[in-house]
Amino acid sequence: MNITGLSWLLLIVSLPTSSATARMRVWRGLKGLGCAALRDGAHLLPARPEHEQALQALGDECLREGGSAWLMSVQPRSAEDAMAYRQLFDRSGDYAELRKAWKEANGGLPTMSPPELVRLQRKFQREFDAARAIDFFPGDASAEAEAAWTDFNRRIGALLSPDEPHETPGRIPRLEMADYQGRVWATRRRLWVDRVASAWLIRRFIDRDARFQWLARPSDCPKRALGFDFDGATFTHVGDRVTFETLLASFGLELDPALVRLGAMIHALDVGGDPVLEAKGFEAVMAGARERLPDDDALLAEMGTVLDSIYAHFRREAQRNNEKSQTR
Question: Is the separation of the CB atoms in 76 and 82 below 8 Å?
Fold first, then answer.
């Protein structure tokens, strides 16, 4: 990339001293955009369409409040100037603060309840997302923070779901659903995301007469039971698939786009991955239900209703997308 060819946007604003509320609102807007302050009232951003639109809106607000605003394009005169501009957006300090907070939180994780763990995780996720959103030139600090965040999430996941299965290599064979009717299915008790979703999938789409056994330890699984979501189980993580996705592939359910979207949501919550809009809401409901309901049968019944609703939502969206594609 030719950094001297990178364009920049410069917003110069001023507001009357009497407009304290507007001043604060504009300042928060500039801070949220990740602007670099060259001096009081002069704010720099890389030239992008969304940045131009946002800066113009802030400039217009200044004008409405009786102030002044000038939005202009600027170009560095040399490679040294270009590097100096980029250095203004160095986020390594922000990432260092985040990593420090994660490290300090580690010691208290084992004493926290599941809802507390989920709330803490969401808080840190918001902060990390905010830092990444204004990291216009990610580098080593960004990569190191990403690795630290993955480790931190793994520790929380281990507390929320002990004995989480490891990935196993190999292909997933296609199975006949008729051979898996009226069976006993077994998984670790105190259900969490992948297990509750897998149990719902089994009873809803695979074996409507399924009976479930909740295990204190994976080694307690009866020989005739179909184990799922633990190491050595009949159905578990295979390659990059979580157990829910393994079940989809095993029984030919991947043709249902709503189930595939559910699988993406469960995958993101269980092992990370591309964010899914509905994931945080499901996780919050799951954590609250898990706190209220010590009985796993009751937990499955309640979360099964939630999964029914999300599935219906995904199915409706898939139908609308299909209708739109047919009219083109």
Answer: yes
Spatial separation of the C-alpha atoms in residues 324 and 319, rounded to whole Å: 9
CA distance 193 to 117: 14
**Structure confidence by residue, pLDDT tens digits, 69-91:** 999 999 888 889 889 999 999 99
Query: Helix H segments across 161-234?
Result: 193-201
9: part of which helix (H) or strand (E)? strand 8-14
Instruction: Please give the distance of CA 135 from its chain centroid, rounded to a whole number.
Output: 18
For residues 306 and 199, what is the distance between their CA atoms, to the nearest angstrom? 13
Span 148-167, pLDDT tens digits: 998 898 888 778 776 667 76
d(CA 228, CA 300): 15
Domain boundaries, the chain: 3-87, 92-160, 177-327
* Full-model pTM: 0.61
pLDDT 10s digits, 87-144 = 999 999 999 999 999 999 988 998 998 888 888 998 999 999 999 999 999 999 999 9
Looking at CATH, the fold of the domain delimited by 3-87 is given as Alpha-Beta Plaits (3.30.70)
Burial class (CB in 10 A: 0-12, 13-18, 19+), 130: middle
Q: How far apart are CA 312 and CA 310, in angstroms?
A: 5
